[in-house]
Amino acid sequence: MPPAGGLRPPSEQDEEEEKIAKGQGVVFVLEDAQLEVAQVGKAYVLLNCDDHATYIKKHKKDPSLYRPDICHQALLSILDSPLNKAGKVKAIYLRTAKNVIISVNPKVRIPRTFRRFCGLMAQLLQKLSIRATNGPDKLMKVIKGPVTKYLPLDCTRLGFSWASDKKVAIHEYVRGLPDSKPVVFVVGAFAHGKIDAPWVDTNIAISEYPLSAAYVLARITNAFEQKWGIV
Hints:
- It contains seven helices and ten strands.
- The protein is α/β, with parallel strands linked by helices.
- The protein has a single domain (26-228), classed as Alpha/beta knot, CATH 3.40.1280.
- The chain has an eight-stranded mixed β-sheet, sandwiched between helices. Strands 2-3 form a two-stranded antiparallel sheet.
- The chain is globular and about 55 Å long.
């Protein structure tokens, strides 16, 4: 039953849409992030191919699919950028290989060391949210999919694929994008493969060479910094 006056409390989707709708900005979706928790010994840990090689081999899994370091580096690239510090990164979403959707507050400060990052993500995937130590805000939280329901209806959605026939110079391409609506960039957070995001408007390549997710994100943020005069 709705509360008195016919108003309903804001939903998770409403909160995400309001966050993105304020002013010009950029939204990032890190696709197929390899974040998986398992019990190894007595502890629940975030699996990675270096520390848990024996466990991964025992369960006949492909070690190349356990690279959470790629997601860690990609997040640091976005969060450390002047674009984010200027408030122009409106939202960050992760979609894991297990189809878990995670919303990351652009104001969060994630651990800079990989081991501590793994501990934080293992905690998030078990407790479903991480709150700020000095307030009620959720800095990271698991949300209901699909991720598309949190994106503005009028946004431009761009996927990145080295194999795309549409190769662009990213700085020129970004200059041609309208400032009147948000832009969503979908970047793969994996070692090999291609993004599975049929909802993007178009896939582009920004180099004739394969690039790491962190470097792709650095080129995107730098292009917007130049466009908007952010130093």
